[in-house]
Amino acid sequence: MSPLEKPREGTQSASRRLIRPGLLPTIFCTGCGGGTVLNCFCRAVDELALDPRRMVMVTGIGCSSWIPSPYFLADTLHTTHGRAIAFASGVRVMQPAMKVVVIAGDGDLSGIGGNHLIHAARRNIDLTVIMVNNAIYGMTGGQVAPTTPEDVPTTTTPHGNVEPPFDVASLVAAAGGTFVARWTTYHVFDLVKAFKAALAHKGFSFVEVVSQCTTSYGKAVGMRRAAEFLADYKARSLRLSKAATLSAEELEGKITVGTLRNVAKPEFRERLHAQVARVSDPGSARQGPEPIPPGAVNPPGPPAGVARGLGGENVALRFAGFGGQGVVKAGEILGLAACAEGRRALQNQSYGSSARGGLCTADVTLGPDEIFEIEPDAFDVLVLLSQDSCGAFLHQLRAGGVLIYDRDLVKLPEGNGLRAHGIPATKIAAEELGRKVVTNMVVLGFCAAITEVLPRAALERAIVANVPKGTEELNLRAFAAGFAHAAS
Ligand code: SF4
């Protein structure tokens, strides 16, 4: 077991939990770098507590396209050769709630798919692209690729490649990619960090992984064991800071590793939505679902998106805290109450990998209109029950939206200018009701009173129908305490 596979106490390793059951060992050739990339990717997803059910993996054709499909446990589009980014761009625009990731090879992405790659980078569309660069077309028998070094013999260049290879990471950075990094399969810990940074980045992120093909490329260069490749990568790799001090001659044959570019720029989808809003309603001040940065001052006027659950528009709410606070139950009750009232409702939830104690969210969109998705970056009401959730989600409150928070557990940024309503919810639950476990109902009552998103009676009926038998009265009292606090 590699250090990356060391399981936490009482848990399965990230790889075991995020790989479809029954598929290990992989079908990669012995010593192939594909397994290392898969392992590092699973670790990054695990450490970011991303929910694979909210991820869409997109891939093309080639050995590295097996990494997401069939192995990684998320929905996957296994597309045609070179077209992964085109498919992924479509998914990203139409499914904004999903994290979209492309994993494909150097031939696929920089050969036939090269045009898609540079234009997606130029657009700064919010995709994460991982290019596994083994410098050859491995699966199809070892043909020359746009990344094959000069003079290397391949099945289509038996006397040696006469073309210079692409430096794909530099190409993507020059084309406009806003996060670009390159590492090798020797640098597993740096690779996990780069994958995490890329997945967390807003905009086009690209990680090139120089990876060994022990079969086709190994045959071409006379190296058949992974250890030989890793020793070679170690010997030839240079950090970017060191590389910057060397001449072109000194850099010959070296692999420069590190983060080539990491900048914040407007993302394609946001710009597109802003334009659609402007064109379809020129008088509207709304510029699309642009999230407000922490510290920004919300405009005055009535809170957007609240007191409309029975009115003309849909309302999006997020409850966030840590596992064990009853965040999901609060979301469920809100959603079920909406349905019982004849409203449309969509409820979703997410737990961190550590479940109890980890970051946890429950999202509910409700209202009169058909609901196709929950937009993660544009909540009308945000309920925060932990400091971690504040750091993670505060920016997702729509301008003019309502913030509700447990004022003993959450410290808001100074001078935030937000329309914020604090309640000592945990304290009320523990001291007035004698049970911290009903904090969620205190908060739900407070939220219901502040936002008027649904009638009180509807929520009380949903509580009675959905809490454990014998706790109805306690939960109703907690709800009433939160409701009353809003008026105090
Ligand atoms: S052919 Fe090369 S890239 Fe493909 S699985 Fe085998 S070693 Fe890996």
How would you describe what is shown here?
The chain has two domains: 3-262, Thiamin diphosphate (ThDP)-binding fold, Pyr/PP domains (Rossmann fold, 3-Layer(aba) Sandwich); 292-487, 3-Layer(aba) Sandwich (Pyruvate-ferredoxin Oxidoreductase, domain 3). Helices cover 36% and strands 19% of the residues. It has helices at residues 14-18, 34-47, 67-71, 84-94, 106-112, 114-123, 168-175, 188-200, 216-221, 226-236, 240-243, 268-280, 327-340, 387-393, 425-432, 439-451, 456-466, 472-487, and strands spanning 55-59, 75-78, 99-105, 128-133, 179-184, 205-210, 237-239, 255-262, 315-322, 344-351, 359-367, 379-384, 397-406, 419-423. Helix 5 packs across helix 6, helix 13 packs across helix 16 and helix 16 (439-451) crosses helix 18 (472-487). The longest helix is centred in the C-terminal third of the chain and has 16 residues, at 472-487. The radius of gyration is 26 Å and the shape is elongated. It binds iron/sulfur cluster (SF4). Iron/sulfur cluster is lined by residues 28-29, 32, 34, 63, 134, 138-139, 213-216. Iron/sulfur cluster (SF4) is lined by residues 28-29, 32, 34, 63, 134, 138-139, 213-216.
What descriptive keywords fit this protein?
alpha/beta; Pyruvate-ferredoxin Oxidoreductase, domain 3; 488 residues; elongated; eight-stranded mixed sheet
